[in-house]
Amino acid sequence: MNLKFLISLIITLALILALNKSWEVGTIRIPPLGKFLDPAHGFWQNIESKGFTLPEALDIPGLQQPVTVVFDSLMIPHLFAQNDEDLYLAQGYITAFHRLWQMEFQTHAAAGRLAEILGRGPEDAILNYDRTQRRLGMVHAAESAYRGMENDPVAKMVAEKYAAGINAYIQSLSYENLPLEFKLLDYRPEAWTMLKSALLLRSMAQTLNTGDKDMQMTNALKLFGKEMIDVLYPDLEPMGDPIVDKPGGWNFEPAHLNDTILALPDELIAISGLTTPEPNIGSNNWAVSGSKTQSGYPILCNDPHLSITLPSIWYAIQLHAPGINTMGVSLPGAPGIIIGFNDSIAWGVTNAQRDLVDWYRITFGNNQKEKYLLDGEWKETRKVVERISVRSGEPFYDTVIYTHWGPVPYDEQFRAENNRKHYAFRWISHDESEELLTFYKLNRAKNHSDYMNALNHFSSPAQNFVFASVTGDIAMRIQGKFPARKKYEGKFVLDGSRSEHGPQGYIPFEHNVMDKNPARGFVSSANQYPADPTYPYYINAVSYEAHRNRRINHVLREKNNLTVKDMMNLQLDNYSIKAEEILPTLLQAIDGSALSPEEKEAYKLLTGWDFYYHKDAQAPPYFEAWWRNLFVSIWDEMRNDSLSLSYPTSWNTSYLIRTQPDLPFYDNQSTPEKETITDLIRQAFKKSMEEVEAWKKENTKPLRWADFKDTYVEHLTRQAPFSFHVEHGGHGDAVNASSRKHGPSWRMIVSVEPEGPKAFATYPGGQSGNPGSVHYNSMLDRWANGTYFRMLFLRQADQSVERTLFSTTLNPK
To answer: Most-buried pick from 229, 384, 476, 798 (CB within 10 A)?
Structure first.
């Protein structure tokens, strides 16, 4: 054989082998480049031109009758089915067409299965994430939600058909039309199941309802005492404006409460490294009665604030079949519409903030943790062996201990240094529930009675459900499964050796906080305290909001003849009550004669600031840096190397500065001098000046709030080419509650009118999850600029409108 030919053959074979094999370089995984770069099958096939359409007809297994899908100019699908079964199958198919990888990835994350896709990660970071999810009982929680679906024939039908639609799409995929991320990460989607939908719903519950400060508060109680606890961490904000304020109007006796006094813990938990949850910038919703609107019809508004990601958290869609015509947004991976409207009503949600997590101190009988003490008896633990598959590695086996209260996430085998070692995790979302039925019924609801009936199926995550109807009713109901608690119960760790420390009962749904057609002409919520102090049950949360809600209520009280445009302006409102309340006090403490020229310029900007966080404003960066440094210096006592402690809230810190100028916490513990609040204000001002000036030098551009805040919409893979920086105003304490990576994930305004709803919306992203599609981020700039689109609410599939792009028919196969 010719030597040159042999060498050429060997090189060719080596290249073929190399290009069809995935490689790992450090922690970076490189897909098989031959397949990935192949113009006929690789990533080039994921590029969609502006005029991209689906075929006029598609054959879909499982359908009983044809389903027409109309795509409008924003690529929002409008589904027209002839029965419920086909409607949800089609929803699953079409959602998977746009968002399959997102759905797959998020459910893997929820279940603690990312190592299957990504490997162990640097320093086992991904494996440890998976272990944490397993040890928190996320699959256990999803299995409870799954049982709720299984036990109701309607919920089971909806979930099964939705899964069948997703699987029909998966089965149609060859390598060339796999979503880009599957090619990039070199794996294929697995079959969808009802459990995956349950995982997705429980993942949202984890995002919204797993915050707690039990350990930190227990330490604070021991160090500072109960009286100071009430000063530093009050349950009710002193200047608050609760969601429902009707003192003495609660016409019921509380259930499941007795006269025994709750024994408070008297211990220090020698722990460190426990981080306080990032402040939840929350959500807004409100409904205004027709008596306050120009049209005479109710207007409902909602903008849930979550992590801003690509693909977008939400997927807009219309569902039409006999008995249902509804539109709004869904969670990709879950059937139905979560936030939206139909011909008769509109609804929306904000997070209720309630503390639904408890930690129980467990007394084990031995190091093997085979038994634990409960009511004077040794009970057997349940050991669950979790098998975690690891890409390019051996499976990892992890044993999780379960008790009467729930799993014990942290022990000698996992994060032994963690503060919560040997504590059981009790979470309300571990219980069986029926959330899917809530949205099935809300999507079809005709009136307030239907709305109330639908909410009776909802347990977690606790939400504030706003409502408006074509008959003129408006309402708010705070819905969830809430333990009936005594004062302080749930605020500190609990003794797990006594069952009486568990919930003795739950607040009856009819006792949950709710309001209908109040005299003031509107209902609203913005994650604030739910009720006035005469509400008979004790309410506790990690933190309640204290600024946005007062701004919303002030505007709605003061104005009449409200229009949709007024509601848009309110959702986009950048005014900060926090700055209005605290900045004059801060400025008063500054000695103007001792300032440098740069400091005088900043002082002048702040003195003339109108408290709006507009994107071009120059004062907000100085105020933000000033407040952040002041906050940290006041609460230096909370920075402890051996103990985790909770910082008081921003709103309470502002209140204490203004009302208690001699609070002992103002003295800096690291200096021999005794500082006053004035000293701290001045020191923080100097430090903030240094930080802002350093930012200006580093960025070599004029100071603007949008650049200083730097809103970043990040792809779920955290890949920069798929992510975007956007110019956006707002602030977590403004109605337009936007930070660097959080903000309004969906803005919706609906005028509920007899001739049909008039709905307007915007969100940060696009309908497609494909980075190669023009619809991947087609609404991002519109969202950043505060521009809304009119939602196209169709009555029939062949309705002639200019805004339709194309139609396709899904036929039975």
So the answer is: 476
Please say if the pLDDT value at position 484 is more than 60: yes
For the chain, the maximum distance between any two Cα atoms, rounded to a whole number of angstroms, is 100
Look at residue 649 and tell me whether its pLDDT is greater than 80.
yes
Average pLDDT, the chain: 91
Amino acid identity, position 781: D
CB 792 within 8 A of CB 802: no
CATH number at residue 661: 1.10.1400
Report the pLDDT value the prediction gives residue 486, as an integer from 0 to 100: 85
Residue 72 lies in a domain: no
Sheet (strand 339-342) strand order: 57-60, 804-812, 67-72, 77-80, 315-321, 324-330, 339-342, 345-351, 463-469, 474-479, 514-516
- Indicate whether 675 belongs to any domain: yes
Q: Say how far apart CA 708 and CA 699 lie, in whole Å.
A: 9
In a domain, 507, yes or no: no
- d(Cα 523, Cα 221) in Å, to the nearest integer? 36
Q: How far apart are CA 235 and CA 528, in angstroms?
A: 11
How many angstroms from the chain centroid is the CA of residue 200? Answer: 12
Domain that holds residue 641: 577-611+618-703
pLDDT of residue 724: 94
pLDDT at 39: 47
Query: Following DSSP, what letter does each residue of 283-348 receive, concatenated?
Result: EEEEEE-GGGBSSSS-EEEEEEEEE-EES-S-EEEEEEETTEEEEEEE-TTS-S-SEEEESSEEEE
User: According to the model, what pLDDT value does residue 50 have?
Assistant: 64
Q: In total, how many domains does the chain have?
A: 1
Q: Specify the 3-state DSSP secondary structure of 349.
A: strand
Q: Is residue 668 part of a domain?
A: yes
Distances in Å between the alpha carbon of 672 and those of 629, 669, 675?
20, 8, 9
DSSP for 682-746, please give it: HHHHHHHHHHHHHHHHHHTS---HHHHH-EEEEETT--GGG-EEE-----TTSSS---SSEEES-
Q: Kindly state the average pLDDT of the residues 408-430.
A: 86
Burial of residue 40 (CB within 10 Å: 0-12, 13-18, 19+) is: exposed
For strands 711-715 and 309-310, give the pairing. parallel
pLDDT of residue 315 exceeding 90 = yes
